[in-house]
Amino acid sequence: MENPVLAEVTRGNTVESRHRGSAIVVDADGAVVFAVGDVERPVFPRSAVKAIQALPLLESGAADRYGLTEAEIALAVSSHSGEPLHAETSLGMLRKAGREAGCLECGAHWPMNEKAARALAKAGAEPSALNNNCSGKHAGFVCLSCSLDEDPAGYVKASHPVQQAVRGALEAVTGAEHSSERMGIDGCSIPSYAVPLRALALGFARLGTGHGFGPERAKAAARIRAAAAAHPFMVAGTDRFDTRLMTLLGARAFTKTGAEGVYCAALPELGYGIALKCDDGAGRAAEVALGALIARFLPMDEATQAAFAPLRESVLKNWNGIEVGRIRSAEA
Questions:
Q1: Residue 143 is part of which domain span?
Q2: pLDDT tens readout for residues 192-245
Q3: Cα torsion at 149, 78, 274, 279 (round to 10°)?
Q4: What spatial distance separates the first Cα and last Cα of the chain, rounded to whole Å?
Q5: What is the CATH number of the domain that holds 283?
């Protein structure tokens, strides 16, 4: 089965590139609202499921034990740009648990934000694990480990109690088995499990509504959504898609990017969850495809529609600032 085109890239009036993929929208009971392509093929969600991975941090009481703020909870579900506030907040989370940056096991890379990377290089400094886009999630893992009175060393391993708790949350929320046969290692070294897009969409519908959750899990999910809505900068960063979208829509949408063209979203007022995957791993295509789906289902007034337009169709400019094309959903 060949998946349909989700997004097109134009140059002038001609389509220059096409991105195929699959997408699905379901409600919290699992009923399919919309689907295109092969939504049963297992895919690695990568960072798109960080909000689900963070549920044990809140459910266990660790977040309250260490007094994590809304901004810190938002960072715990982020794929941030490594800007100074992101790195400082990650370090602050660790210090609340009596730890330092050296216990992070996510690896180091230069900030994704160019300005932050240039400033670091100009200062003659090297990037640390705090600049890793996953440092907030990992700081949350360290806090969870310490709260459980477990040694955080090796917390990235599938056998560690932290990852066992995370795996349990993923299985319970998505309803899909997270088997060792479909386990891979993510960029930040934790386990990643391939599951169908349908299961990811269901997980996000539940995350957005609390449907099927016990009281503590429903409370934890609501706190995560509220934190992201209040601090969208922490979830991504300057001029990033998730930050721009949640700044505009607030609590009406929770969105989360994953590597290799994966995107997931929850629309709480509709009770919908969305999951999509671009076959070629193109993030640029995943963004506009998600924007188009949100615009299709979420009611917006005229002013909001106008402000939302750049999120469903991106303008491409050359080095002289001349508009040369667009990235748009295939429905455009």
A1: 5-329
A2: 999 999 999 999 999 999 999 999 999 999 999 999 999 999 999 999 999 999
A3: -110
A4: 23
A5: 3.40.710
